[in-house]
Every structure is written in C-alpha cells, then in structure tokens.
Specification:
The structure is a single chain. The protein has 310 residues and is mainly alpha-helical. It has one domain. Helix content is 60%, strand content 3%. It has a two-stranded parallel ribbon. β2 and β3 form a beta hairpin. InterPro entries: DUF716, TMEM45. It is a multi-pass membrane protein. Belongs to the TMEM45 family. Keywords: Membrane, Transmembrane, Transmembrane helix. It is found in: Membrane.
C-alpha cells in the first residue's frame, strides 16, 4: 500500500467489487420488486457462463494474496534488525489487513462449495476484515512522524470502513431488502476512488511501484483543507454514480424485457412477499425465477422474461 501502485491497485480492486455488487443487486432488486417481493442480499454474486462460477470470490482471494506477498517481500523478509528492534512495522500492519481479507475470501469460497461451516461465517470474516481495516488505519494515521496531509488522508476513510461494517451486521441480522447492500457497495466504491486519488496526491508515478513522495507540501494547512474538500467530492460523485447505475440497470431491464416497478411511495408492507435466492423460487444457479404456480406445473421462466403486469 505504501506506494503509488499499491494504492491504485487497492483502489481498483474496491471499485470493481463495488460496481459488480451494485449491478447485480439492482438487477435482483428490480426483478423482485416487479413481482411484489423483496430481495435477499448476498455477500457475493456468481458469474454465469453455462453454469455459475465464483469468479468474484476467486478475485477476492487472489488480489489480497498478491498484496500480502508484496508487503512481505518488499525490502526482504525480516521483522527485526541486528539489534532486535522491530522493523517494517507499516508493512506488518498492511499484511494483517490483507491476511484477514484472504481468510474472508476462503470462507466465502467454502460457503459457495457448501462446506459445513458455521452459519454466515463468510459474513463474519468480512465484518472482521473491515473492522480491523478501520482500526489499523486509525493507528496508521497516528504513527509517529506522520505529517498533517498524510494523517488526514488516512483518517477520513475510517468512517466508511465502519459504515461498511455496520451494513454487514444489519445484513446478517435481517437478510432482507436492498439498502444494506447499497450501503455496503457505496462505502466500498468510495474507498476505492479515494485510495486511487490518494495515490496521485502522495506519490510520483513515473516508475513502478512509484514509492517516492510527490512534491505536495504535506504540512500546509491549505492542502489539508483541500484534502477534506476532495473527500466530500468523492462522497458526492459516488452517490451520483450509484444513482446512475441503478437507472441504467432499470432502463436496460425495462427496454429489453419490459420489467417495471411501482414508485416507492405507492408500496406498502402488504405488497411484499419474502424472496430468498436460496429457496425454491430460484434455480440453484440463482439465474432463473420460478413462479409458484408455474413450478407446480413443471414450468419455469427466466426473470428477464417475466411480465410484471401479468
């Protein structure tokens, strides 16, 4: 993480995961709403190519492994100097962050394989990963020798890490509706765009991995204020991106398959039935919706082909 490419790689990872979550969650939400049902959010979404494939999970395992190895090998594998003093302390901190995300990916894969794990253990490991992420960043920002700009760029995203953690807890508790999923994806998206931006603020990027500091005056109060304003801009722009993605998904489903939903203020609690992606209303691959009456008659249809007005 302590270089230009270290921040950019982490940022791209979060951006891709968040956008994937948004597209999949909005699609399932709109399809469920068109049938008067509520969706069940997921901690991951499969890519279906002939059959469901856990590509997101594999991505969530491989990326932090690369980051972990990068932190371990950079500067040699050593944690104490010849006098017994601890060295590479920041690297060790980063390794623990990557390590817990690796464990989350593995537990997510085991859940996908239906291994006999504790219930929702993949959610628990995701929660721990983001909680420790926030705690580690707090202490990272307050390490001795940090200048004001470097401190503030690490302090500002901490609340997003805890926001994602809260969304995960609520999702574990209720397992219903789209809002926990949207909150989680929005928080992760903003972490991704922020870390990518921070890379350009703090480091030069004319060579790999771009570990040299930029010419930005890290002690200038004006630069600290600018950084705060930029973080607010990330919150603003990413909210617009979230809304835009929802509208694009909705318009696509409406134009291609005629799927529409009622306006939010016209719906009441009596309009909803619970929709669980793991229950019999869906095929095991989660891609085909089964209407109860059709299922009794041995008929089924794709969610994209359902007429919500039927």
């Amino acid at each position: 993480m302590g270089s230009f490419w270290g921040h950019v790689d982490e940022g791209i990872f979060f951006i891709l995961i968040a956008l994937w979550w948004m597209v999949c969650a909005f699609k399932e939400y709109i399809i469920a709403e068109s049938k008067g049902m509520s969706m069940k959010p997921n901690i991951h979404y499969d890519v279906t190519i002939c059959k469901p494939l856990p590509l997101e999970i594999i991505f969530k395992i491989l990326f932090p492994i690369v980051g972990f190895l990068g932190e371990l090998l950079d500067g040699g594998i050593r944690f104490q100097d010849s006098e017994g003093h601890f060295v590479k302390l920041v690297y060790q901190q980063h390794m623990t962050i990557y390590g817990i995300f690796i464990i989350h990916g593995i537990t997510d894969l085991m859940a996908w394989l239906k291994a006999p794990l504790f219930p929702m253990f993949n959610y628990v490991t995701a929660l721990l990963a983001f909680l420790w992420y926030g705690v580690a960043f707090y202490y990272h920002a307050n390490m001795h020798g940090k200048q004001p700009v470097e401190m503030i760029v690490h302090v500002l995203p901490i609340f997003l890490m805890f926001l994602v953690s809260v969304a995960i807890v609520l999702e574990m508790r209720w397992q219903d509706g789209v809002w926990t999923m949207v909150t989680r994806a929005y928080g992760v998206l903003t972490l991704g765009t922020w870390f990518s931006h921070v890379a350009f603020m703090l480091y030069v990027h004319n060579k790999f991995p771009g570990g040299h500091s930029s010419n930005l005056d890290r002690s200038d109060p004006n630069n600290v204020t600018f950084v705060k304003a930029m973080f607010g801009m990330h919150l603003f722009v990413n909210l617009l991106i979230t809304i835009a993605i929802y509208l694009m998904v909705y318009i696509t489903l409406k134009l291609l398959y005629g799927i529409t939903i009622k306006a939010g203020f016209h719906r009441g609690a009596h309009d909803y039935q619970h929709l669980s992606l793991g229950e019999s209303k869906f095929d095991p691959d989660g891609s085909k919706f089964k209407d109860p009456e059709q299922h009794e008659n041995g008929l089924e249809s794709s969610p994209m082909l359902l007429d919500p007005e039927a």
